[in-house]
Request: fold
Amino acid sequence: MTEFLQHVVNGVSLGTIYALIALGYTMVYGVLKLINFAHGDVYMVAAFSGFYIATGLGVRDDPTVGKAVAVFLGSMVVAGALGWAIERFAYRPLRNRPRLATLITAIGVSFLLEYGFQLPSLQAQGRSLEEVLRGWGWTVPGWFDALVTALPSTFPPGPTPRFFPEPFTRVDWTVLGGVHISNYDVVSFLVAFAFMLGLQWIVYRTRFGMAMRAVSFDPRVAGLMGIPVNRVISTTFVLGSVLAAVAALLVAGSRPRIDPIMGLMPGLKAFVAAVFGGIGNVPGAMLGGLVLGLAEEMVAGYTVSSFRDGIAFAILILVLLVRPEGLLGRVTVEKV
Amino acid sequence: MRAVRAMALLAASLALAACQGKKAEGDAPAKSAAAPAADKILVGHVGSMTGSEATFGQSTDQGIKLAIEQWNAKGGVKGKPITLRTYDSQGKPEEAAVAATRLVVNDKVNLLLGEVASSRSLAMAPVADGNGTPMITPSSTNPRVTKDKDKVRPFVFRVCFIDPFQGTVMAKFARNDRKIEKVAILRDVGNDYSMGLADYFLAKFKELGGTVVDDQSYKAGDQDFKAQLTAIKNKNPQAVYVPGYYTDVALIARQARELGMKQPLLGGDGWDSAKLFEIGGKAIEGSFYSNHYSPDDPSPRIQEFVKAYKARFGVVPDGLAAQGYDAAMVGFDAMNRAADGSGAAIRDAIGATKDYPGVTGIITIDANHDAVKPAVVLEVKDGKSVFITTVAP
Reply:
């Protein structure tokens, strides 16, 4: 019994991560009908910005609450800015093109981030980004100059994994006669649940949510009605990316290895979780993530661990065969 | 519009930085594609300079550099100076194959050194064989690296022991020295090295009368090992054999302790990295692993090497640095004995290596192109590896 409960705790803890990433997927899909494949890589970039900020502040030697807040806020800002930039420069120019073009661009952005972050760092090449730019005699705008000087010298990180410092101290509890649970598991779950409720509230109870739903329904008509379509879409991307940043820091704090392809598998699985729960549906993403995490955990724990992903995904295929719209998804009839 | 320009600038600068990085990667001057002139010896090294096993490649490379500097100080091989060219495999088999091809076909190296990981050496071996360039792997222990099914690969050698021996060493140590009766295994399912070690450990441990209560697997790069560890914990073994590489092992150790598991972990030479202690911290204390050598060994040959390495690089050499040094030394010794500079002549000379006094033991290359050497067992204590015992073949 203790073993089963431990599996449940582990599974929920894993599922919470998928849920947090899946929330971002589902929001962007809900508004744009675009599968943002770069979402997993925003998650990775957020983990690395958290790492750089934490290293700069010296979190490893002396963790304090203030520093933890700074790490979270800083990496949320970076991730939000990246989400905004990806939408602005990669997706917006293609918005009125066939949807396939945007999808392929999303995959391209994902590869750009994954492999861009695997380049040898400028420091390893014996230079700083500032010197590189000056060396070409390019004039850099003043504000940008300050940003460049502040960039960490070990950027890009290269393929070597880094060891992420704990943003807040880990506490392990033993409950129910031998089930181990940590404050990270509890905090992650509560945060994911709070975000789910928050998003649900934004989408159904605020003016911005109403605008989102209108854009999702028909962007052209929404525009004609005076809704700032671009701003709504940008904000959606920023919101989704900020969620990815929170997920990244909660994961990196308890599983402290980060590397440039760390977003690949969680991203894919979160996508599956979002589809499984009914893509575009906020509570569905949460439910899908938890079910996927538990399925993986039980398969690995009670059967052959190398079939972990295989069997978990097979279950998902079966469910989708029976309910193609996902667990909580609604059947939409395309009117011609 | 200003923002747009800045973004484009940043993207362009990163791209250009990358191109220039590629150029600076090798240790050689710009005319890298030219064949080596007859008056110098060119040695190629493929190593994981970055990636999950970055310290493997970096240590090996430093060991090789030390060997080259010592030979060059003595006047080089047959009076010709030696130069090194290192390419990064990034810890990926496909990159290792590309790097090996580049070294052999473009740079026309006289000798190919590398890789540490068996999966990557396996990707390089056909390149060396196909082009008739002798290759020595410093520390790949999977038998298939030098032996393709029943056929010994003609140009591929190693200066380390092989998995059947390393797995056996740990099984013997666990069963006879630690009197352990029940173990569990947690292996990396996508790694030739880990699978080999686990299989040989399992066979020997059972032969010695022990029981293997659970055999779980993971995939390198996984973040979460708790499902497997919870299952293992429930079977209540006295130790867990984890023949993986150091980053995964460190995370596994942490998560095992988080689940309240107190058993020691056992492992192989893939643990040998200072990063294991940095990431693993307290979780890895009290665990044991088999390795090629121990810097604590008082024998003068080893202490001399440790002193020279420390003077040159400022750190105590790990097992992979010692292996890299030995691989290069055996190669240069063979080149010095070889009838001429051709690949076949060097190959024959490496194959004839007998009783070479290496840092990691007396090296004799056997008919399977393997070195027969003793192994050591180390314990992790206070963030350091402490010598426990030597096991002879």
